[in-house]
Amino acid sequence: MKINKGYIAVGMIIAFTLLFELVAHADMSDQASKISFSEPIQIPGQILPAGTYLFRLVGSNSDENLVQVFNANGTVLYATLETVPAERAEPTGFTTVTLAEHGAGNPVALVKWFYPGNLIGHEFVYSKQEEKPAQEMQRTIVANHEAKANFDSTGAGN
Q1: First and final C-alpha spacing in the chain
Q2: Residue 101: Cβ within 10 Å count
Q3: For residues 123 and 59, what is the distance between their CA atoms, to the nearest angstrom?
């Protein structure tokens, strides 16, 4: 029995395509996003130092209202946070976050996170002890290709 090399090549291409599709869909299902912050950032329950963090949903088939925050390479879990669905008028092709100031000398707070292309995102739930920033103090920032979210003292996003 002789096997044609063309059949082997086609089989390998099909297998590679299927593997690539599974990997691409796995990333989309957990909405994994790396975001860099140039200043400390407040998330519910703690303040993270400036740096790069991996945000992703907890399991694709579980509660889509839980977001995990890891270090940049996903090896250290900093928090599992409750969120509520948040809507926006138009999707963007980039990760989008809403940050808010709440008092001089305090780090900005992460209020919302939207995965690229989605109209529905995640609004972080802060406890009653943690003051939720007023709407007028919030700024939405579309992260650039390197997913850097900056928030300067004037409240303007970069």
Answers
A1: 64
A2: 19
A3: 18
Which structural domain range is residue 16 located in? Answer: 1-30
Instruction: Give CA separation, 156 vs 76, 150, 151, in Å.
Output: 31, 8, 6
- pTM, two decimals, is 0.69
Examine the domain organization and report whether 58 and 80 are in the same domain: yes
CB 69 within 8 A of CB 57: no
Asked whether residue 37 falls in the same domain as residue 63, the answer is yes
Q: How far apart are CA 118 and CA 137, in angstroms?
A: 24
Write the single-letter amino acid at 140: T
> Tokens in use for 9?
């090549």
Cβ partners under 8 Å of residue 84, min gap 6: 65, 122, 123, 125
130 with 80, same domain? Answer: yes
How far apart CA 65 and CA 40 sit, in angstroms, is 24
Q: In sequence order, which residues have a C-beta less than 8 Å from that of residue 125 and are 6 or more positions away?
A: 44, 81, 82, 83, 84
Write the pLDDT tens digit of every residue in 19-77. Answer: 323 233 335 678 999 999 989 999 999 999 999 999 999 875 555 789 999 999 999 99
